[in-house]
Write a structure and sequence with these properties.
Length: 343
């Protein structure tokens, strides 16, 4: 009587490739070998004949012992159990499993598209993917910057279909990558840009700046805003500082929503001393910062220059720096008390 030489090896193959299931029979004699699809009880082949109308099925044998069924361009629907059957009485059979793996594919819906949100709102980025095995979803920031979790912890990546960002901040703005992988190449990703809108904010590092009449000086403010703000300078009474002449204003983008505002004044006359306001304005609001520019008498500068010349090469002490500042402020105070007195 015929018998099976080996169990049918289970086969795993990616979708679109060809799969081969092999059944080895000894002493077949007058009997016949057939291949069937178990779940539908469909006869696929008998001996060297293909019975099914599925043109992707083929059969080959070697020495009347090895019967190999080929399924071309396999589809996910081909996954399942297949039976090799010998028509003895009683019938003899054995089964093998075909597993069809499918690389991941990110779905357009419900996967998020680019988002624009207000700062402080709650944000959920979604990513959905198909594939077999079921894909794992990983979130990363395109820039490589860590993702800040709700508890304040910073991590390089987050797993899960949803990336939840409560009370979104401007620091969360940027591109996020949703990466789907399941061990079947290739992994795929989608880029989702998160734009955070917020009203302007201005930071002034030096709110009090001293300068010598006849020389030049640069005033600087740092602004943050998105959408990007309109930036300009005014005097303390609100009149806009006109460009050109002794005034030179420029705005340099530092990164994304940050900018540096600079106002260079050269040469200084008595009229230029006083308060200046750096103003930033966008569709969500406006804000300003104030810098007071005071006059340093030339003799105060000469004192410091002489001090530094005498101590050249020595480490400058904190007290000398404080003295420099306080002396300049004292001189400034004298000038403010005697506005008509020129030194």
């Amino acid at each position: 009587d015929p018998k099976f030489s080996y169990p049918i090896a289970n086969v795993t193959a990616p979708v679109g490739r060809d799969a081969f299931l092999t059944c080895v029979v000894q002493d077949l004699g007058p009997y016949k070998v057939a291949w069937l699809r178990v779940d539908t009880q469909t006869i696929l082949t008998i001996q060297n004949h293909v019975i099914t109308k599925n043109q992707r099925i083929g059969i080959a044998n070697s020495e009347h012992k090895t019967w190999t069924m080929r399924i071309r361009d396999i589809k996910e629907s081909d996954k399942g159990w297949y039976m090799c059957q010998i028509n003895t009485d009683p019938m003899k059979s054995q089964m093998g499993y075909l597993d069809v793996v499918v690389p991941p594919d990110i779905l357009d819906y419900p996967t998020s598209t680019d988002m624009v949100v207000r700062e402080g709102s709650n944000v959920t980025l979604k990513c959905a993917a198909t594939g077999s095995p079921e894909p794992t979803i990983t979130w990363r920031r395109e820039s490589g910057v860590a993702i800040e979790l709700a508890n304040g912890e910073e991590v390089a990546s987050v797993e899960g279909t949803d990336l939840i960002i409560p009370r979104v901040k401007r620091q969360h703005m940027g591109a996020y990558l949703c990466i789907a992988s399941n061990g079947v190449p290739p992994s795929v990703s989608k880029r989702i840009t998160l734009v955070v809108h917020f009203p302007p904010m201005i930071t002034v590092s030096n709110q009090l700046i001293g300068a010598v009449e006849g020389k030049g000086v640069t005033l600087e403010c740092q602004s943050e805003a998105y959408p990007k703000s309109i930036n300009y300078w005014t005097r303390e009474r609100g009149e806009i500082v006109p460009p050109g002449g002794k005034y030179s204003a420029n705005v340099t983008e530092i990164a994304g929503y940050r900018s540096s505002m600079r106002l260079h004044i050269n040469p200084l006359t008595q009229a230029e001393f006083g308060a200046y306001r750096c103003v930033a304005k966008n569709s969500l609001g406006d804000t300003d910062g104030t810098i007071k520019l005071y006059r340093i008498p030339p003799n105060a500068v000469n004192y410091v220059d002489n001090f530094e010349a005498r101590h050249k090469g020595k480490k400058r002490t904190k007290s000398s720096e404080v003295y420099h500042t306080s002396r300049a402020q004292e001189q400034s105070g004298e000038d403010s008390e005697n506005p008509g007195k020129r030194k």
